[in-house]
Amino acid sequence: MPRHVTIKEVAAVAGISYQTVSKVLNHQVKVSKQTEERIWTAANELGYHPNFIARSLRSQCSGMIGFSWEPTPPDQTNQIYSQFMESIIHYSESVGYHILAFPYKPGGEWINAYRNLIETNRVDGFILSSVEYEDTRITFLQEQKFPFVAFGRSNPEWKFPYIDVDGAAGMRMVVEHLVSQGHRRIAILNWSEAKSTSVGKNRMKGCMEALKNAGIDTPPQWIARGEGDFPFAYQSSVQWLDLPPAQRPTAIVAFSDIMAIGAMNAALNLGVRVGIDLAITGFDDSPLMQYLIPNLTSVRQPIWEVGRTVAEMLQGILNGNPPQNQAVLLEPTLIVRDSSSQPARSS
Amino acid sequence: MPRHVTIKEVAAVAGISYQTVSKVLNHQVKVSKQTEERIWTAANELGYHPNFIARSLRSQCSGMIGFSWEPTPPDQTNQIYSQFMESIIHYSESVGYHILAFPYKPGGEWINAYRNLIETNRVDGFILSSVEYEDTRITFLQEQKFPFVAFGRSNPEWKFPYIDVDGAAGMRMVVEHLVSQGHRRIAILNWSEAKSTSVGKNRMKGCMEALKNAGIDTPPQWIARGEGDFPFAYQSSVQWLDLPPAQRPTAIVAFSDIMAIGAMNAALNLGVRVGIDLAITGFDDSPLMQYLIPNLTSVRQPIWEVGRTVAEMLQGILNGNPPQNQAVLLEPTLIVRDSSSQPARSS
DNA sequence: ATAGTTAATGCGAACGTTCGCCCGAACGTT
DNA sequence: AACGTTCGGGCGAACGTTCGCATTAACTAT
């Protein structure tokens, strides 16, 4: 554990009061060329670096941003969060802040983790992710008047700074793409109403809009809702694909990649050829989707940009100039691959 | 931004000096039952929580642990790091430490990030991951005498606390499994010598041992070395599978899941049936491997335990009782799935 | 020559803790 | 009666900064 050089030692070497050294080093005051020179060389030779803790104590801000995320189920991938994290770290570091990563706690307990960090003065602000429709963290932070920015929407009545990806637009692109390939019998794999964050609602909205625009009428039994995991998607798909060819969907739109994979497995087991007899699309464009057989059409979210913007907005708030736009929506991109690129065969 | 209650306010309410309040709250001194009572109720009623920054300044330790990781290429999955991180956060929080996540910097620049955190007193120790064979971070931290623990091995001559998963054992299990299925013609997909961390070396060692034990002689052209990504694995596999059936491998052992996927794609495109004509195995058991078609045999690392142990070892060092074992090796588990569970067909 | 300005620097205080030492009273013990 | 001991608690200092105000000397304008 190395000893650290303090500002007083620098001052002693430069032969000047330590307070003045502080000001000079922070460019807060003008002194004669020679003393300035002396101070800088002394600081460099001794290898002085300001003690972050002391500075925090004095300036009453920790220079830390809290971040916590909901763990992904072990059978699912979550490139999203690691990339998201990289981008918020990248930006925040560039403006002198660090990221404090703290653990997810289930249920209302999560609030306590946030509360604790505030009470002990550990962080200056938060970045929220995986926000739910009525997220208690948001109400809590708002009544504490504690700075935060969210990735994801919540109750639309609430006013708070957030950024989100336009899931409705993504879904519109998917459906329009399928329609342009001649698909008219389109089934949907969504999360259940109960566990639906606004994510599910928005994507559904985009779906329905595009279907309506195309004059397509989707029967209720072609809209499956459930856990959003592999088994749910598999079983729902089996039910559809077990129907006689003329009655089954020619395309399945999954609201997540893992559900798309469930559908693919179902098709394979029933001898339905994905990409030929049946189109399948996912959402998120997780890392391996391009290597599936056939590779999967999916919607890619601009995660890096989301992270950067969230971090930037929070900086604005911390520096006293809150963003003009409280709500930012970014456009996703449709990545068309083999799982959906052939024209529909109305078998 | 809420105002915070200080220890002096508690003292004022309890009618006692603030220094004594500090000691009582930290259980460092005994006082009369009544004053103790008064202090605690005052603290609770006011909602006192010690200011972490001030405490750090006084006690000269930040209560933070630095963690940084090498980003995964965008086409690969990295469940490893998100799980690893969750586990180190989980444990560290339970003993009052927090994690400071800082960005990866390519090349020697990374050292500066570490140096900076040390110099500015931001962290008390580091957890290293993705260590390389001659990792400059290790020499740097050692000469700084700064506490750290690594996930992964480096130069075997160096003595430093680390924990690793026994890749050789994992590979032995893979090869033994294949041999027991009757495979004798086994090809290997490894990283190139140049970019080989000790990870590649160790896995190779296990492979060769098991092959030798089985009396199998693998020709050099069946040991491919390259970037370790999808294209490399795909091309190498195509070369092997293009041979007449009697001359090609009946099994391909990939040193990572992404390489296994490359091999699977190659097989599919050449009409070789994975799991029937050809066995393929991966390493890491990434989230989606169980859903591939066919699902992939892979080696699962006990990541949660690794994270916990690393964090625990670092705590030991920080608290002055360094672990008796500087080097810990954990055993991985072989997960056998369809991609390798049928007996070899020596076509 | 006097007052007013400016430049260069010093000084005390504060941020909220923790830590070691001191002090007085009460209580035995020789 | 003088002397240790223990208990309950106070006090000053320190951790390394930053910040506002004060001070001095030199210089300019009247």
Rg measurement of chain A, Å: 26 Å
Derived from helix and strand composition plus strand pairing, the structural class of chain A reads: alpha/beta
What distance separates the N and C termini of chain A? Answer: 73 Å
Biggest interface and which pair forms it?
A: A-B, 62 and 62 residues
Count of individual helical segments of chain A: 12
Strand arrangement, largest sheet of chain A?
2-1-3-4-5-11
Q: Can you give the helix content of chain A as a percent range?
A: 40-55%
* Beta strand count of chain A: 12
The averaged pLDDT of chain A comes out at 94
What is the chains' assembly state?
A: homodimer
Main sheet makeup of chain A: 6 strands, parallel
Q: What global shape of chain A is seen?
A: elongated
Order of SSEs of chain A, N→C? HHHHEHEHEHEEHEHEHEHEEHEE
Uncertain runs of chain A are none
Strand content of chain A: 5-15%
Q: Quick summary of this structure?
A:
The first copy, chain A, contains twelve helices and twelve strands.
Describe this structure in words.
Two copies of one chain form a homodimer. Chain A is an alpha/beta fold and 347 residues long. Chain A contains twelve helices and twelve strands. In chain A, the strands form three sheets. In chain A, strands 2-1-3-4-5-11 form a six-stranded parallel sheet, covered by helices on one side. In chain A, helix 1 crosses helix 3 (33-46), helix 5 (79-94) runs parallel beside helix 12 and helix 10 packs across helix 11 (257-269). The longest helix of chain A is centred in the first third of the chain and has 16 residues, at 79-94. The N and C termini of chain A lie far apart (73 Å). The mean pLDDT of chain A is 94. Chains A and B meet through helix 4, helix 5, strand 2, helix 6 and helix 11 of A and helix 4, helix 5, strand 2, helix 6 and helix 11 of B. Strand 2 (98-101) of chain A pairs antiparallel with strand 2 (98-101) of chain B, so a sheet runs across the interface. Chain A binds a DNA duplex (30 and 30 nucleotides) through residues 4, 6-8, 16-20, 22-23, 26, 28-32, 35, 50-51, 53-60, 121.
